[in-house]
Amino acid sequence: xxxxxxxxxxxxxxxxxxxxxxxxxxxxxxxxxxxxxxxxxxxxxxxxxxxxxxxxxxxxxxxxxxxxxxxxxxxxxxxxxxxxxxxxxxxxxxxxxxxxxxxxxxxxxxxxxxxxxxxxxxxxxxxxxxxxxxxxxxxxxxxxxxxxxxxxxxxxxxxxxxxxxxxxxxxxxxxxxxxxxxxxxxxxxxxxxxxxxxxxxxxxxxxxxxxxxxxxxxxxxxxxxxxxxxxxxxxxxxxxxxxxxxxxxxxxxxxxxxxxxxxxxxxxxxxxxxxxxxxxxxxxxxxxxxxxxxxxxxxxxxxxxxxxxxxxxxxxxxxxxxxxxxxxxxxxxxxxxxxxxxxxxxxxxxxxxxxxxxxxxxxxxxxxxxxxxxxxxxxxxxxxxxxxxxxxxxxxxxxxxxxxxxxxxxxxxxxxxxxxxxxxxxxx
Length: 428
What we know:
About 75% of the residues lie in helices and about 0% in strands. By secondary structure, the chain is mostly helical.
């Protein structure tokens, strides 16, 4: 067990290498067993639009329990055991997902679909808890002046891994349809889900090489995450942005799957290929974004990226090619992701990292989930079933989504960042 003062340069270099390897393998598996795959798997089981909304929303609702992660972490001396334990539990739950979807395992398709949603929800809960502890671990091992470049490098490998995962999954989808024309694609999707889960399990192996840094949490009380929010004015302002963007993002998400699947009739291969374009562009910009936030801060980059991302729903209106173009716009998410992780670590410091991450992602996740569910209910009433195959019926919906996403950039104008620390090559 190492304290922060006893961590050496070699330990830090090993942590950076392990973080990159973990990000690549995890993202590869995540690209294979993506939300797109699980959604299409649910459609194979006869899922309704309301159930698809739950696939999108349920993981975020479970994620509110991440508020308790500082209290959980305070029960351990080091980061390694709780981090790995939650990741391993998430893999077990994810392996149950394709098992429950296989015909005959459960009495009915409706029950299989329900079990799929439950496994998906619990998987995300464990995975989120493991990720919060992992970032707390990183905040101890990585020197503070290098947070931006570290998150940029990790984002690079995350996008490369997801890109490979999307390409592999879409390639298998195309191959299977050609080899078994007219056959059910359920066996393929079950196989892909199983393979993706095993890759996520393999991603924990690099983390075992990282030194077991001492836990430093600012408070071990049950409501430590809430106290972090009350005490940190920069976090409160960042949280206002996160809540606004999550609400806007949820409104522009739930009916999007109905548009893609029913109005456009796009195959899983094309959906994953579009996402692969986004993942191809993001690695090219992630390191550059990390350098920008280390030198100039996060605010301006986040505003620009938010306005670009907001255009994605409008591009949907261009049909299949517009859907592909929307993922070109979503490349700008890389700037948001790098800036957000860097800003959170700068605001928090090692002692409050787990509390700040848990309160931000827990609350914004709930807001996103609730907005998805509300939107799903409203669109069921406003957009009758017989109109859902007509692309033009979605025009007002996507215009409103663009306006709401653009308005989410307004809170960023009032964001206040901690001072940027000078670059240092010190071991500490």
